[in-house]
Write a structure and sequence with these properties.
This protein is of the alpha/beta class and 345 residues long. Helices cover 43% and strands 13% of the residues. The protein has one domain (3-342): Aldolase class I (TIM Barrel). It has 13 helices and 12 strands. The strands form 3 sheets. An 8-stranded parallel beta barrel has the order 4-5-6-7-8-9-10-11, surrounded by 8 helices. The protein has a two-stranded antiparallel ribbon with strand order 1-12. A two-stranded antiparallel sheet has the order 2-3. Helix 4 (85-96) links the parallel strand 4 and strand 5 (99-102). The longest helix is centred in the last third of the chain and has 33 residues, at 296-328. Bound molecules: flavin mononucleotide.
């Protein structure tokens, strides 16, 4: 089975409720679809007669050299996809040199995920919960598990309006690590855990308390990107949360150029949403991103074949990216720039 087939197979394997939770987006899912389409609309503009016999897919993110630009996006409740859960995706990331981001809503204790990932690159995604004790516990686990950065998700004051979950009435079939009561929560109860009073004033405190670099995930505009620089973030993720929060917001691909302009190289810029092929990542780097996060494709691999499936999805993305550099006539990923793409008029 090819990675492209994983999505269809995962839909068969997972029940309608779980599949709808993983696949779905907010409202009419216009942003969900646009995330994928926006990369497809950008054309690649190759150069010819360049020596591409050797290619270098590596990038530098948060001051560290990484073998390629793929980062596994934080995704909640992975045990509902497969029993390998976060340990499976962390191992797949480690095996492929991908940076792994563990969700705050992990099904697995972060320390166990860290042990499974060994020396591989891992970041902890942080939701700021009303119960700050839960958030502090995650920060503590991040430090104990040698997580390299905190990815604070800033586009989730509360959950988006998700029609599929409302229709299915899906209740996640297990309690995640942070939910100490141990009883699975309804979507409304889950969303109520988040602290909607969180503001820019709170951000620097997380960096100080943890001693870890902060990446803000869910920035879509240049003014917020500037504020992220001002509060001392080390990076941002241009993201609309995989189309799961507010429908009809702009895609990461569309938002990226203005954010890159505003940031002007002062901090790292990642982008996510709809990255499905290696050449999508090349387009993102050409538009100024330092790296890309990939979400659902990894989950579909996990759902179908556990850790091996997630690894196969990541391997294919890396291979496609490498071949894109060659066929584009740009053998070094870090030399990609806007001259290699033509954005839609
Ligand atoms: C099932 C699912 C769960 C997610 N859970 C989280 C989460 O816990 N924290 C977070 O910051 N983002 C979460 N996201 C958003 C992803 O990190 C990422 O922004 C998005 O999935 C990227 O889009 P893609 O799936 O099209 O690649 C989730 C996405 C999905 C699909």
């Amino acid at each position: 089975m090819e990675p492209a087939d994983f999505e269809a197979r995962a839909a068969e394997l997972l029940g309608a409720g779980a599949h709808g939770y993983f696949a779905g987006g907010a409202g009419d899912e216009l942003t969900l679809r646009d995330n994928v389409e926006a990369w497809r609309r950008i054309a690649l503009a190759p150069r010819v007669l360049v020596d591409v016999s050797e290619r270098d897919t590596s990038v530098t993110v948060l001051g560290r050299r990484r073998p390629h630009p793929f980062v596994v996006a934080p995704m909640a409740y992975q045990r509902s996809a497969h029993e390998d859960a976060e340990i499976g995706t962390a191992r797949a990331a480690a095996a492929t040199g991908s940076t792994f981001v563990l969700s705050s809503q992990t099904s697995t204790d972060p320390r166990a995920v860290a042990a499974a990932g060994g020396a591989a690159d891992r970041w902890m995604q942080l939701y700021v919960f009303r119960d700050r004790g839960l958030t502090d516990d995650l920060v503590q686990a991040a430090r104990e598990g040698s997580f390299e950065a905190l990815v604070i998700t800033v586009d989730f004051p509360f959950g988006g309006w998700r029609d599929r979950d409302r229709r299915s009435g899906y209740v996640v079939d297990h309690a995640p690590y942070v939910q100490l009561s141990g009883t699975p929560l309804t979507p409304a109860e889950r969303h109520a855990m988040h602290d909607p009073t969180l503001t820019w004033d709170d951000i620097a405190g997380f960096g100080e308390a943890s001693g870890l670099p902060i990446v803000l995930k869910g920035v879509l505009g240049p003014a917020d990107a500037e504020r992220a620089v001002q509060v001392g973030a080390a990076g941002i993720v241009v993201s609309n949360h995989g189309g799961r929060q507010l429908d009809t917001v702009l895609s990461g691909a569309a938002a990226l150029p203005a954010v890159v302009d505003a940031v002007a190289g002062r901090i790292d810029v990642l982008v996510d949403g709809g990255v499905r092929r290696g050449w999508d990542a090349a387009k993102a780097l050409a538009l100024g991103a330092d790296a890309v996060m990939v979400g659902r494709p990894v989950l579909w691999g996990l759902a179908c074949e556990g850790s091996d499936g997630a690894r196969r999805v990541l391997e294919q993305l890396v291979t496609e990216f490498d071949s894109t550099l060659g066929l584009l006539g740009c053998p070094r990923a870090e030399d990609l720039d806007a001259s290699y793409v033509v954005a839609p008029a």
